[in-house]
Amino acid sequence: MMKMVVLVSGGGTNLQAIIDAIDSGEITNAKISAVISNNPGAYALTRAKKHGIEALVVSPKQYENREAFNDALLESVNRFEPDLIVLAGCLVIIPEKMVKAYENRIINIHPALIPSFCGTGYYGLRVHEAALERGVRVTGATVHFVDTGTDSGPIILQKAVEVKQGDTPEKLQRRVMEQAEWVIMPEAINLIANGRVHVKNGRVEIR
């Protein structure tokens, strides 16, 4: 059974998609050991508690500097001995020491088709604003492993979503979540939990 720790910052819609997929059997051989948020007001913590999942807050405001926070976050994660760390709407920059300790065992979902509209500064609504400004006809979401760069780790899954006439960033964000994020994040977790994802020469092979 693969043990996961899910890191969150906000409402937890991707967390809910993962919980629902486990409950429905779409994800097999995996369980969520804990949910950790940098934001004490994150609704994702409530979602976790409703499903009997341990929920913790590790906030930068609790520590005198970033290094102390990074150490505390890593210690909190290590306590659960996870096989996989899932970033589900986590807005904290993952410490390099955590990335190295969990190489190819941290996954993130980005609300665009990497390498488009990704990297430093591209998160939340800004991604969808940029897609609309550029006038693309297709956007989507990407699940990837986390490395020491920004949105630069090996790509696991991608799913395209149509951009429609009259879209606002908010409308597009919702469509990308519903049609892509909530689909491929559980799918990627299930593939990893069942030993089908392998990283070779910086690229993912699904067997």
Give a structural overview:
It is built from 6 helices and 9 strands, in the order E-H-E-H-E-H-E-H-E-H-E-E-H-E-E. The protein has helices spanning 13-24, 43-50, 66-78, 96-101, 125-134, 169-193; strands spanning 2-8, 30-37, 54-57, 84-87, 106-110, 138-145, 155-162, 197-200, 203-206. The strands form 2 sheets. Strands 3-2-1-4-5-6-7 form a 7-stranded mixed β-sheet, covered by helices on one side. A two-stranded antiparallel ribbon has the order 8-9. The protein is globular.
Compact description:
36% of the residues lie in helices and 25% in strands.
What's the structural blueprint in terms of helices and strands?
Layout: E1 2-8, H1 13-24, E2 30-37, H2 43-50, E3 54-57, H3 66-78, E4 84-87, H4 96-101, E5 106-110, H5 125-134, E6 138-145, E7 155-162, H6 169-193, E8 197-200, E9 203-206
Parallel strand pairs: 1-2, 1-4, 2-3, 4-5
Antiparallel strand pairs: 5-6, 6-7, 8-9
User: Can you tell me the overall shape?
Assistant: globular
Number of helices: 6
Give the strand order, joined by hyphens, for the main sheet: 3-2-1-4-5-6-7
Helix content, binned percent: 25-40%
Mean pLDDT: 97
The major beta sheet can be summarized as:
7 strands, mixed
Secondary structure class reads alpha/beta
Which H/E pattern describes the elements? EHEHEHEHEHEEHEE
Strand runs, count: 9
* Fraction in beta strands: 25-35%
Rg calc: 16 Å
Distance between the termini: 19 Å
